Amino acid sequence: MKVHEYQAKAILSRYGVAVPRGEVTDNPGEAREIAKRLGGRAVIKAQIHAGGRGKGGGVRLAKDPEEALALTRAMLGMNLVTPQTGPSGRVVQKVLVEEALDIDRELYLGITLDRTRGLPAMMASRSGGMEIEEVAAKDPSAIIREVLDPALGMFPFQARKIAFALGLAGESYRKGLSFMPALFRAYVETDATLAEINPLLVTRSGDVLALDAKMNFDDNALFRHPDIKDMRDLAEEDPLEVEASKYGLNYIKLDGNVGCMVNGAGLAMATMDLVKLAGGEPANFLDVGGGANEEQVQNAFRIILSDRNVRAVLINIFGGIMRCDIIAKGVVAAVREMGLSIPVVVRLEGTNVDEGKRILRESNLKITPADGLADAARKSVEATRT
Amino acid sequence: MSIWVGRETRLLVQGLTGREGTFHALACRDYGTQVVAGVTPGKGGTLHEGIPVFHTVSQAVKETGANASMIFVPPALAGDAIGEAAEAGVGVIACITEGIPTNDMVRVRAYLAQRDAAETPVRLIGPNCPGIITPGQCKIGIMPGRIHRPGSIGVISRSGTLTYEAVDQLTRLELGQSTVIGIGGDPVNGTSFIDCLRAFQEDPGTEAVVLIGEIGGMAEEEAACFVAGHFRKPVVAFIAGQTAPPGRRMGHAGAIIAGGRGTAADKVKALEAAGIAVVRSPADIGSRMREVLGR
Question: What is this model's ipTM?
Fold first, then answer.
């Protein structure tokens, strides 16, 4: 799960990670008051779940409270397009009004899982403001990496290694040494999957602060963090994906026109690949899971059809635990409820396959049976062209 | 021949008395697996479907000589269940549970590593996996037993249903399997592709291997490196997610292209460079294996 910058900073500051003073608002008049409290000059930052905001005009400096009001008014409701939002952009609902700080240096500090080691790793670089992937591609040796163990915490020597490699000295060295373990504690204790400070700001007086902050959280651990779970902003997510998540379905909307309903994540990905190999484009990823009931299948089918780009549906089921008759009943119920104006290609294999096929056949619905994977993909792609 | 599980395996089931646990424990028993015990704290001393239930894993091991465990405990408690099985000396642990917090697995793996240094290593399979099966001998997990056939092809996969698909293709072509292992779709798991390859290398009953990977992480690249240097049997591979968009988690917690790493294209390239026959279509896994074996 993703959160906004202002939420990430609120979480981080609970753990003693230094962040700039600031407040969030959805009201221009209030932005002016916040700017006054901050001493007049302030930075207005659009709160959307995508990076690269500065490039799209989503981060502006206000030299006084009146300008804070004007900039906030212009930013709220604006459709912000950044390199990460895609061409459709995101509507700005809130802004973060923050103190304007002097900048001596901008660095990078982040923590994420090292999958090979099965442990978190802290990464740092002197190129703040640049994407870490970009740094990695240009000069991998510019990235400092330290594998950390949650059970042991971050040792001071590990923080010292990073601080010296970043060239921190004097006051900023001392501040950095407390910043890093605090960030690691926040990462571990909130079950984060990413805690990224980019840029990490060093001021001329030697303060070290999180100028920007990005945190992602482990969906599987949200049950331990009801406060973080409440920070979910549905407006930032695709409406169909939100709808699907209500029914425990894994759905991801894509740009093609072949709707896919599959059981199992690996087979769902493989089915998308097959559609592509057959010359088509998948409209979605959808895993109905291993133990879906008739109602879930019905909802899955309805969600696929809600995507207006979909010209044909491919149902690919290899029933291990999943019974083919349940899939068939769910599909028939969904079609009865919504009507059906596009072709449906069905490939069923596994438990109760004959019963499933009989239910589909006797429903008198316009359903094309397929024999095997390749046949199913070919027929569904052909169906989009008729 | 086979790896890790066979006729001698004595299985205990953690979470036996739950709905899923009961259903699959019975399916395993019907397949021929020796299901010797169940563990549900608070229900020790009872019989469930004819299987003796114990409060703790160590009791179950002591009383029944169980040497493998299948875990159906809910996600919030499953990490702990793995630890309990390892502590009790269970040699093979297959954790089926999906949705375990990553931090729990980080802790479990650290615990297993510590333990392995001192005692007999523990083989953790999964979590978030279908389990492990040696066809005709022992099934531990949720895979449909009937699609398998005893034989000499080893199968390793990060996915569940896609594994069934591959196994089904092999069986239809009369290419039986030595052992089929689902290593699971989570970012932190117990058994890697390399662990399986190493065991298949040593197993005289395994003639060739099917490797099914997917986007995310570096496990396939690492496997490719191992195959190039150490593996002397033919390998056919498929990578799911060639059309997956970056930054999106494709169902499995571990299936995500992050920071430009973990793409299908990179994995295919690495595998091919290691001399592995990579099929672009999952429909070609079985037929390609037949070609490779010259049958």
Answer: 0.93
